[in-house]
Recover the amino acids of this structure.
């Protein structure tokens, strides 16, 4: 595989859907913190509600993209079952990762896409440049 670099892209703005209720700041700003803070978050009890975010740009030297990974830092704060799935939107195609049951304490979860779902081909830097990523209540 040779040398590779993992690049972190963070939310920089609202994407095409902002259905979760934010606390503390705008939806995208609540999840753009590095490191993450549990004081600001987005929440919903409605299955199907989703947030998608526009992302920071790849560095100019990026020529090949091996995969896209979306990570979430999530938890439930009440009794009962709660779950979510990560989402990406490339072009007009929106796809979800695996549904994950949320624990009552914060935990990380991630999904990886090795091909662009809009083209079924390898990712290109241009496609990643307009990618939206987020979560959906499941």
């Amino acid at each position: 595989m040779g040398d590779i670099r993992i690049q972190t892209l963070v939310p920089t703005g609202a994407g095409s859907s902002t259905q979760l209720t934010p606390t503390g700041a705008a939806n995208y700003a609540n999840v753009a913190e590095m490191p993450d803070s549990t004081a600001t978050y987005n929440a919903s009890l409605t299955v199907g509600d989703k947030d998608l975010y526009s992302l920071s740009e790849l560095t100019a030297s990026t020529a090949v993209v091996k995969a896209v990974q979306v990570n979430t830092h999530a938890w439930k704060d009440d009794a009962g079952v709660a779950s979510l799935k990560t989402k990406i939107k490339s072009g007009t195609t929106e796809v979800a990762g695996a549904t994950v049951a949320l624990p009552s304490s914060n935990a990380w979860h991630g999904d990886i896409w090795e091909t662009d779902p809009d083209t079924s081909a390898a990712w290109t830097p241009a496609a990643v440049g307009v990618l939206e990523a987020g979560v959906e209540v499941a």
